[in-house]
Amino acid sequence: KDNTVTWLLGIKQLKQYLYVRDILQMNEQEYWFATESGLFIYNIETKKFINIKKAENNPWGISDNAIYNILKDKDGGIWLGTYFGGINYYHKNNNLIEKFMSKTQGGNLLGTVVRGINKDKNGNIWLGTENGGLSKLNPVTGHIENYNIENVGLSDNNIHGLLPYEDNILLGAFVYGMDIFNTQSKKVIYHTEYDANSASSLKSNFLYDIKKSKSGEILIATTRGHYTFDITNKSFSPITKVPTEMSYTTLLEDSKGYIWLGTWRNGLYMYHPRRNIIKHFAHEPNN
């Protein structure tokens, strides 16, 4: 209201700047921040915070300080995707962090760098990793299955975009286009990628993010444009409300139906699919 900015966790409080990867609001007072310096839990009423970091002598703490994403499930459990420490799970009833580590770290995950986390209709947790392909975690039994280039024919083991859709998982592979992995047959049933000689509307092989909108559309952020994907006809349609040559890295639909797109170097775009509302937010040194 008065055009001022208040630092919650900045130089004054920490003597350092934080690299914040993700934010989760737990309740009216409490926010959880995933950062490169561990997990911060901040209370906006008391202005007090806790910083949880990896401790070698604490087997029930977090496994890595570089936390990339936070997901809260319907049971109140918190999932933390880390860069080198697999995935961590916390529930207040347990009062400890349960870790799902890579095989090199004594666990069953094939990858060590968790890029994406999403839940399917059956409650399974799907993990896209940057160096081990795709993994399925049964949260009830803790059982993990790994799918990669070698055993199911993924295009690449570096996964960025990940969307469970009916009995399939749509995967955006690093510079290798998109795979559709069928959860019943446990095989890649379709692959597509950009071909300069093809008539396809898709102009990028790097699908950074894949989301399903509230209206049921499959939305895709790529390094060269923003698209919808028709899974029946296997066709892409560019969304022209935003620049079609832009490099988009992430997307989100908010509660009012606005689509937000993060870019590589050009700030933030926002539009509404059914209204003539388009905005571009860019860095301004004086604002």
> Helix coverage percent of residues?
under 10%
Catalogue the unreliable spans: none
Average pLDDT, to the nearest integer?
92
- What gross morphology would you assign? globular
Distance between the termini: 15 Å
Percent of residues in beta strands: 35-45%
- What kind of sheet is the major sheet? 4 strands, antiparallel
The largest beta-sheet arranges its strands as: 1-2-3-4
* SSE ordering: HEEEEEEEEEEEEHEEEEEEEEEEEE
Number of E-state strands: 24
Radius of gyration, whole Å: 20 Å
Secondary structure class reads: mainly beta
Task: Write a concise keyword list for the protein shown above.
single chain; 287 residues; mainly beta; four-stranded antiparallel sheet; 2 helices; globular
Plain-language structure description:
- The chain is built from two helices and 24 strands.
- It is 3% helix and 44% strand.
- The model has no long low-confidence stretch (mean pLDDT 92).
- With 287 residues, it is mainly β.
- The longest helix is centred in the first third of the chain and has 4 residues, at 11-14.
Put the structure in a nutshell.
The chain has 287 residues and is an all-beta fold. The protein has 2 helices and 24 strands.
Write the layout of secondary structure elements.
Elements: H1 11-14, E1 20-25, E2 30-35, E3 38-43, E4 48-52, E5 67-72, E6 78-82, E7 87-91, E8 96-100, E9 114-119, E10 125-129, E11 134-137, E12 144-147, H2 149-152, E13 159-165, E14 168-173, E15 178-182, E16 187-192, E17 207-212, E18 218-222, E19 225-230, E20 235-238, E21 248-253, E22 259-263, E23 268-271, E24 278-281
Antiparallel strand pairs: 1-2, 2-3, 3-4, 5-6, 6-7, 7-8, 9-10, 10-11, 11-12, 13-14, 14-15, 15-16, 17-18, 18-19, 19-20, 21-22, 22-23, 23-24
